[in-house]
Automatic annotation (TrEMBL):
Belongs to the complex I NDUFA5 subunit family. It holds the Pfam family ETC_C1_NDUFA5. Keywords: Electron transport, Membrane, Mitochondrion, Mitochondrion inner membrane, Respiratory chain, Transport. It is found in: Mitochondrion inner membrane. This is NADH dehydrogenase [ubiquinone] 1 alpha subcomplex subunit 5. GO terms for biological process: respiratory electron transport chain. It is a peripheral membrane protein. Signal peptide: none annotated. GO terms for cellular component: mitochondrial inner membrane. The keyword Mitochondrion applies.
């Protein structure tokens, strides 16, 4: 029993190496909760047809599946590939806040006034030249 405890302590990280983000000993369950909250908030506040909802749902569901299927933090971080688990928690919490803002802003609705002619011409692809 002692050897197992010593080995476990040796594998736990001491710091994230990121100022202001301490190591979270309960990171995995917290991340699972954040991802489930994200999916619940999307369903409650954003229309199914909104591109934002479709994109966030797809990413979040994919990440949630990874976290639920893996107990090892290093494996989760590697498979998601977007930072340490503590950073993933911060990202998920920020997304939850953004969902409320998106619900308020309603970017999926038509513009109140039509866009001026040639509004988006600047952003068109330039023709290929030889």
């Amino acid at each position: 029993m002692r050897i197992t405890r010593l080995l476990l302590q040796a594998t736990q990280k001491v710091t994230t190496g990121i100022v202001g983000i301490p190591v979270n000993p309960a990171a995995r369950p917290q991340l699972i909760g954040a991802y489930k909250t994200t999916l619940d908030e999307l369903k409650a506040k954003i229309p199914e047809t909104a591109a934002y909802r479709k994109a966030v749902e797809a990413i979040t569901a994919h990440r949630l599946k990874i976290v639920e299927e893996n107990d090892d933090t290093a494996t989760i971080e590697e498979l998601i590939g977007n930072g340490q688990i503590e950073e993933l928690i911060c990202q998920a919490e920020d997304e939850i806040k953004l969902i409320s803002k998106m619900a308020e802003w309603r970017p999926w609705e038509p513009l109140e006034e039509p866009a001026p002619p040639r509004q988006w011409e600047y952003f068109k692809k330039a023709p290929l030249t030889e």
